[in-house]
Automatic annotation (TrEMBL):
Keywords: Hydrolase. The keyword Hydrolase applies. It comes from Actinomadura meyerae. Gene3D superfamilies: alpha/beta hydrolase. Residues 34-158 form the Dienelactone hydrolase domain. InterPro entries: AB_hydrolase_fold (IPR029058), Dienelactn_hydro (IPR002925). One of its GO terms (molecular function) is hydrolase activity. This is Dienelactone hydrolase family protein.
Length: 272
């Protein structure tokens, strides 16, 4: 039984806790593993036990995983009350662009700097970036950093008020498309078919921007875990988090297959 199944916080004792400075902005990052670097960004409402479970799976597959603290309480079990407060704070934060018309979230510049540092420390052909929910699209924006060569966009939820939006300014969108085309990058993405926070309209917008470079995979909502933590049950209220809160850890399950596909994608690009 993991921490989420037990309703417990995760103490994160198997990661080193670092204070990482990017252009004078300092944030906490949890780091563990050996091998090429992968930046794994948390979903709302923070670095939950399920996010850490995914981080450990990536680490144990032969990567150095970097988990930046961007919002919420690190390691906290996601309750409905606390999660709603984290969402409210993030939506008015200057670091994020939660609503349509806001363009690219400024925090992605810091995350690109983290990717540069990870590549410098770990070497290899480049770095992977996994975004989840609120940070889902950040993995795509991070391809503006040359070291990021393996972006995974999981159930991106921003902008919250535009189901066909991409949380990208026009200039950044053009630059991302050019980078993807120039370097032959494939963008791997996942969502549930009945997710109201990441709809088919959003995936269609990615396809319009990126063409065949966008590999969007859709799982049936009926495959989602039926007893997720309270924040996902009471606030999210829909199948959403394919490889974290709504993952079913059973051999052969579609969500576990998605996890394995992500790890295989990272390995093919970062272990060469």
């Amino acid at each position: 039984m993991n921490a989420t199944e037990a309703g417990l916080d995760d103490s994160i004792t198997d990661f080193s806790r670092r204070r990482v400075d990017v252009d004078g902005v300092v944030k906490t990052v949890y780091v563990s593993g050996d091998g090429p670097g992968v930046v794994l960004m948390p979903e709302m409402p923070g670095i939950s036990p399920d996010v850490l479970r995914l981080a450990r799976w990536v680490r144990d597959a032969g990567f150095t995983v970097y988990v930046p603290s961007l919002f919420g309480a690190d390691g906290a079990y996601p309750t409905a009350e606390n999660g709603q407060e984290v969402v409210r704070r993030a939506c008015v934060s200057a670091e994020f662009r939660a609503f349509a018309g806001g363009g690219t979230s400024p925090v992605t510049a810091w995350l690109r700097g983290l990717a540069r540092q990870a590549h410098g420390e770990c070497g290899g052909p480049g770095v992977g970036a996994i975004g989840l929910c609120f940070t889902g699209n950040f993995a795509l924006t991070m391809t503006l950093e040359p070291s990021v060569i393996a972006p995974v966009v999981n159930h991106p939820s921003l902008p919250l008020d535009d189901p066909a939006g991409l949380e990208l300014g026009d200039e950044d969108a053009r630059a991302v498309r050019e980078r993807v085309e120039r370097d032959g990058i494939t963008v791997l993405a996942y969502r549930f078919d009945n997710d109201r926070w990441c709809t088919g309209q959003r995936f269609a917008a990615y396809r319009k921007l990126l063409g065949d470079a966008f590999d969007g995979r859709v799982l049936p909502g009926g495959a989602a875990r039926t007893d997720p933590p309270p924040f996902f049950r009471d606030v999210v209220q829909t199948p959403h988090s394919v490889t974290t809160a709504h993952l079913v850890d059973e051999d052969g399950h579609p969500t576990l297959k998605a996890r394995d596909e992500i790890i295989a994608y990272l390995a093919a690009r970062l272990h060469s």
